[in-house]
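Hi R.,

Here's the chain you asked about this morning:
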Amino acid sequence: MTEIPEYVLERVFDAPREMVWRTWTDPELLARWYGPGVETIIHKFDLKPGGTWLNEMKWGDNRDLSKIDFKEVVPQQKLVWHHSSADADWNVISNPMMPDWPRVILTTVTFEDQGDKTKVLLTWVPYEATDAENACFANAMNNMGKGWESGYAIMDDIFAELQAG
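And here is the predicted structure, written out as tokens:
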């Protein structure tokens, strides 16, 4: 059995925890930074354990659909969800662009005060993945930070707007 890879990204934001939480949980703000460089459309966002987030990213004639099932929601502290590729009817499918990509990724995001700033710790772990899926995920880990960091840079702009009032 292949070791289960874990992607970890830690970032301290120059914003209070309530504001950082809001950028992760307000669909209007989330759509602005999640999927930087593409159009993000949130079709459904039911933020509660057992709730679902249906997400579409569009660029040119391409699109990527994701189904996110919330497992744990602790306001301003923690979000846990299963993240999967989806078909047009929002059924979980293998990633059409990367067939060996894990069908489900366990995502955990925690929020912690650091003075007047907020530390966000994000982890991504393949969930019930095959050896091939774990290997694909492990091979992609070096490039994962680019997308997240681009989105986080947009979040910095959002915080500046919100703090300016």
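One quick note: The chain has three helices and eight strands.

Cheers,
M.
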